[in-house]
Design a protein that fits this description.
heterodimer; A: 436 residues; D-Maltodextrin-Binding Protein, domain 2; 9-stranded mixed beta sheet; two-stranded antiparallel ribbon; 11 strands; 44% helix; B: mainly alpha; MetI-like fold; two-stranded antiparallel sheet; flat
């Protein structure tokens, strides 16, 4: 509850511009305390909980874009038509708010029955969610591609249900490259630097480097994994401050200081540089599979761009960052909700439904069946699907990852501007070693 | 505690009044007197219940949460003692954040009140179109602070921002500046925006204060030969003291707790370099995934602001007594 009211206090609707004027301010400390809280807005009413018969479930979905809500509304309509008596209450939440919302729900015991989220393992650690095999049929369980199912395990048991995936590849603007006299996309870091110098001379922004809070962990991870670095060592222990990571930041700092990136990478969010790339203002960028649907096609369908493997330090092996989101099913009193949840999840994972979500949102499949259904339109998606087979993921199976990710988002950008890479990384390492 | 509960209790409290109703015509003096002694409680009851529910209870909950061990999922795992506080005070970024909060509060409130004094004087003067100007001043107040902050973020953007455009056209800058990327610059800009959104309220409080100063006092001052400066310092300002007090305290509280301006413009970044305790508190909960430590920060925040306001009141009262 305090979280709810605290959140409400700080939430954006409550502004310092609106002051309830209180006359009884002057005087006692009690008066002051009163004003303190009164000016902080009150808490709204709470939403209704689950029903008694277990046939109505609550589903909280993350908002990928404007097509998300209509997709789920249609799916739920079909589901309810096919399963009379069952009902799904939908709530679509923006990614910006979903963290605070989920925490508030958990703390106040109002968890949804099904949640679409980018983490699962701390729920599993706290024994809040069902195991995967308890909420989907064996057929669905078998249908998950192993690489994603493996990333959905906590202590050897699969809890998360892979939902969508994305892969990152290197995007470059062919027109800008032509203008700068570059014929091939860079493969090694030295070539990136070289190409960036040429683009800069030709008058464009060479490299988009988004190290602002939005997705800094992904951007850093892409560069680090292509230098042999990463979040953990071989034994799975946190190794954020390892040598290879320091070198990676040194390199990125060098590019920044030489003016080979957009101004102020530490304050630039991913969506800003993706947009600028779509507008043809940036020469090259670590792009994502949803670039085309989410950014390029909405701005300039004719943008002349190419897609290449992510450049690596030595230019020989190229790693790809894989990202997946999950569905998780929360435990509710005495498993009453399990049958309804099971029905709903099995319904979603039907080939036509799952693949429709992927094509609606421009993501990659996590199941064999939906992947087969999507083979049309493959010219653009094929390199991403191929790259996924060897992709590296963030350690989402570690419950502490959420905390580490938060620390990285806040801190890593400063390493290319004001702070020393080594200090920044060791600060994050300290956070990682703390208990969740 | 939901709103419904509160109303339910208020209704309950009102129902209690019914047995007291026939008391007026009652012949039995003793119980009647006893009931009459309870009467104030009936009138105060709803307000007391409201205060307990809306004010005291959240504070108690906040303190309680700060003593709990809360998992990153939001699940309460048990009593943590002072661990959250130890962790909070060990944060290397905390001193900078607290210092910045002080600069933020003192800076924004001082500038706001100074400018508002002038604005209020202007609005108090008689001139054609005064009503229109008064209405215009309300606009930044009526607009959502978040909207204002977002608008300013776009105006300060280094690619598309109108601020850079204008400064370059005028010839002050020869290339765009990324205002919100530099900690010092962005903090200054955000303080300016915070002043902007605080002005209307403050100006109107002072304006209403100006309205309460009787014309005779000014007349007396004029007869005594006081010039405009002397009149302002000797008559207007002292008589504005109650309004200034209210304006200052409410501004301190609101500016201290100000979240949307900073969050929308820099999100406290880069790093923690433009955070105040309020945004830092949010980051502790939702970036560091530590609700307990965040609640500890909230308690410290609460204590700090209580302290600031009490000290302020003490100083003002002291001056009143000596001056």
């Amino acid at each position: 509850m305090i979280l709810a009211s605290f959140k409400q206090n700080k939430s954006l609707g409550c502004s310092e511009g609106r002051y309830p004027v209180k006359r009884h301010l002057v005087g006692s400390a009690a008066g002051v305390a009163l004003a303190l809280v009164l000016t902080g807005c009150g808490k709204g009413g709470s939403s209704g909980g689950a029903d008694a018969d277990g046939k109505t479930i609550r589903f909280v979905a993350a908002k990928y874009d404007d097509d998300t809500q209509p997709y789920w509304e249609n799916l739920i309509k079909d589901f309810e038509a096919e399963n009379p008596g069952y009902q799904v209450e939908l709530e679509v939440v923006d990614w910006e708010q979903i963290d605070s919302k989920v925490k508030t729900y958990t703390q106040t015991g109002q968890q949804p029955d099904v949640l679409n989220y980018n983490k699962f393992s701390d729920f599993a650690r706290d024994d809040l969610i069902h195991r995967a095999k308890d909420v989907v049929s064996p057929k669905v369980l078998d249908d998950f591609l192993p690489i994603f199912a493996d990333q959905a395990q906590y202590e050897g048991v699969q809890y998360g249900l892979p939902f969508i995936s994305s892969a990152r590849l290197f995007f470059y603007n062919k027109d800008i490259f032509d203008k700068a006299g570059i014929s091939e996309p860079p493969s090694s870091w030295a070539e990136v630097e070289d190409a960036a110098e040429k683009v800069k001379k030709a008058g464009d922004i060479p490299l988009g480097l988004p190290l602002g809070a939005e997705e800094a962990q992904a951007e850093f991870s892409i560069w680090a994994m292509n230098n042999g670095g990463g979040w953990t060592d071989k034994s799975g222990q946190w190794a954020v401050d390892q040598r290879a990571n320091v070198e990676t930041l040194d390199f990125l700092q060098k590019l920044t200081k030489a003016g080979l990136t957009q101004p102020n990478p530490e304050a630039t969010n991913r969506k800003d540089v993706f947009n600028q790339f779509a507008q043809g203002k940036i020469g090259m960028i670590n792009g994502a599979v949803f670039m085309r649907k989410g950014f390029i096609d909405t701005v300039d369908k004719k943008l002349n761009y190419g897609v290449a493997p992510l450049p690596s330090k030595d230019g020989t092996t190229h790693n790809t960052l894989g990202v997946q989101d999950y569905l998780v099913a929360f435990k509710k009193d005495e498993d009453k909700n399990r049958e309804a949840v099971n029905k709903f999840l099995d319904f979603f994972y039907q080939k036509k439904n799952a693949s429709k979500f992927l094509s609606t949102e421009g993501f990659l499949s996590v199941t064999k069946s939906a992947g087969d259904a999507l083979s049309a339109d493959s010219a653009y998606y094929k390199p991403f699907v191929d790259a996924l087979s060897g992709a590296r993921f963030a350690p989402t199976g570690n419950p502490n990852w959420a905390t580490v990710e938060g620390a990285v988002k806040q801190r890593i950008g400063t390493a290319v501007s004001s702070a020393e890479p080594e200090e920044v990384l060791s600060e994050i390492q300290k956070t990682a070693e703390k208990d969740g | 505690m939901s709103v419904q509960d509160v109303t339910a209790r208020i209704v309950g409290a009102e129902e209690d009044r019914t047995p007291a109703a026939p008391e007026r015509g009652s012949r039995r003096p003793r119980p009647a007197r006893r009931l009459r002694a309870l009467e104030p409680l009936l009138w105060l009851g709803p307000a007391l219940v409201l205060i307990l529910a809306v004010v005291v209870w959240p504070v108690v909950e906040m303190v309680r949460t700060s003593l709990m061990d809360i998992s990153s999922t939001g699940l309460t795992r048990g009593f943590a003692g002072g661990a959250n506080y130890t962790e909070l005070f060990a944060e290397p970024d905390l001193p900078g954040v607290v210092l910045r909060t002080l600069i933020w509060v003192v800076g924004v409130v001082t500038v706001t009140i100074t400018v508002s004094l002038g604005l209020a004087q202007l609005l108090n003067a008689r001139f054609p179109g005064r009503r229109l100007v008064r209405w215009a001043l309300i606009v930044p107040w009526a607009a959502s602070v978040l909207m204002t902050a977002l608008t300013w973020r776009w105006m300060l953007n280094n690619f598309y921002g109108v601020v850079n455009r204008v400064l370059m056209d005028v010839g002050i800058l020869d290339k765009p500046v990324n205002w919100l990327a530099d900690p010092v610059q962005s903090f200054a800009w955000m303080m300016a925006v915070a002043v902007f959104v605080s002005l209307p309220f403050t100006a109107f409080v002072i304006l209403s204060g100006l309205g309460t100063i009787p014309a005779e006092v000014y007349e007396a001052a004029r007869l005594d030969g006081a010039g405009p400066v002397r009149t302002y310092l000797g008559v207007t300002l002292p008589l504005l003291r109650p309004s200034l007090l209210v304006a200052a305290i409410i501004n301190v509280i609101n500016v201290f707790n100000s979240f949307p301006v900073i969050w929308a413009m820099t999100r406290g970044g880069p790093g923690f370099s433009t955070d105040t305790t309020t945004t830092y508190m949010y980051k502790l909960a939702f970036d560091n995934q530590d609700v307990g430590e965040s609640a500890a920060m909230a308690v410290v925040n609460f204590a700090l602001i209580l302290l600031v306001v009490l000290v302020y009141l003490r100083v003002v009262r002291h001056r009143e007594e000596t001056g």
